[in-house]
Design a protein that fits this description.
Distance between the termini: 40 Å
Shape: globular
CATH class of the domain at 2-191 and 234-269: Alpha Beta
Structural class: alpha/beta
Helix content: 40-55%
Number of helices: 11
Radius of gyration: 20 Å
Strand order of the largest sheet: 3-2-1-4-5-7-12
CATH superfamily of the domain at 2-191 and 234-269: NAD(P)-binding Rossmann-like Domain
Oligomer: single chain
CATH topology of the domain at 2-191 and 234-269: Rossmann fold
Number of strands: 15
Length: 337
Amino acid sequence: METVIITGGSGFIGSNLTILLLENGFKVINIDKVMPDERYFDNLKSDGLNKYYQVHRCDLAKQSDVSNEIQKLIQTCHSDESVVALIHMAAYKDLNLSLQIPDKYYENNILSTINAFKLAHLSGAKVVMFSSTAAVYDDNLTGNIIESDTVNPSSPYAYSKVVGERILNDMVLQYHLNGVSLRYQNPMGVYKYGKIDNSTSMFGNIVSSLKNRTVFHIFGGDYNTKDGTPIRDYVDVKDICYAHLHFINYFKDRLYKNGTYDVFNLGSGHGTSCKEVCELVKKLYPGFEYDITNRRSGDAAGSYADLIKVISATGWEPKFELKNSIKYLFDQYNRIF
């Protein structure tokens, strides 16, 4: 059975991706410092997928954890038929918090990246995928962003991703791997019983506002945008998950030509204003309240992913519309509101 290793597989995107990969016949090894909740295990068991799922509790940023676990992981991987991919998702990801504790972000994100890519090499993974971010681009860019646009990260979080991209590029060339950095826009939604986003992202905060019956705040109504509120590219997490599955097959179809590395944007391909999002939510939940307050320091007017490169080169493109994604998210988790 082909195996996929996911670092950070207990998190928002990782837990959703795990379900999709298991459903498509892969064995999944999750390396994370936290365990999924019991509900997640119960659902995997109900679907008959748990027997193909392993969790290794390991903090990849701690050398003591890595030293204790890495040999076990390598032995586990070599006992399988094939490690087809390692997907590195484990990271601290709060952009604003990274400005407050930059040393912690650099230490965690860069050390875990080095050790994850080292594991990819030692385990014989044929493909290495790195979860990067659109935050690596210059904040002053507006409209559609292409992969060759200026990279100018404005936070330690984003800069740690730039470093990760460079590390992967260098390791691909040195160890003849197949590598790809995927620059996510703003993932939202859920796939079946995967984890929902409980971070300080827009949808994380909207879910929190609905749950706690508080007013949601849009920061800034005087931007040079269609309605004055910031523009963002919101992409369904299901599209992100299918993109990873797509790239596994993409490299397989090309017989794993070693030493290849590239960077691709992943997003919906268009921008949606914060006010438009709130109005979509309000149609589903009339009790949802929002207001528009002053801008926050450091916030950008916004941009969205140009997908020409990823579509033309690989054939992947997003399928899910935002309004349907929001409805599905709330239908799945209606009980918490």
